[in-house]
Amino acid sequence: xxKISSKFLVLILFLAYSSCYYDEAxxxxxxxxxxxxxxSFSEDIQPIFIQEGKDxxxxxxxxxANPDLREGNAYNAIVPDLVVPGNAEASVFYQRLPxxxxxxxxxxxxxTDEIALIKAWIDRxxxxx
Length: 129
Ligand code: HEC
Prior knowledge:
37% of the residues lie in helices and 3% in strands. With 129 residues, the protein is mainly alpha-helical. It has one domain. The radius of gyration is 18 Å and the shape is elongated. Bound molecules: heme C (HEC).
């Protein structure tokens, strides 16, 4: 009986710990995207969500996790609910990226260049361009 309850305790502790999981906030500096470099949702942002080996849509596919980041759905799934156009820092989408406090382990992180592109796209108005 005693053994069972200590196993149970370990399980509870594990569940409590893993429910508090947040991946590390990016400690590296997010680079600035130069003014003259255009950032387009369809050409620069959507492709970040569906990279081989770093595919958000294995989970964010309308079934497993929200928001739905599949091509054709992603823009309307994140703007305006999770994105404040013109203010990345105030946008839940930006605050919760893999590599920047994503709420569960995604199995991979975005790198600082990818995070910088998403930040620039939001800061410049989050257009559907
Ligand atoms: C292993 C599955 C998995 C992968 C891969 C994954 N996510 Fe998530 N993500 C989740 C889960 C689960 C949540 C919690 C929200 C939910 O359950 O709907 C979440 C939450 C989020 C949130 C917060 C949403 C909110 O409303 O607070 C954002 C933003 C996000 N993910 C972005 C991404 C991006 C971008 C990628 C790819 C670079 C990605 N995620 C990859 C599972 C995943």
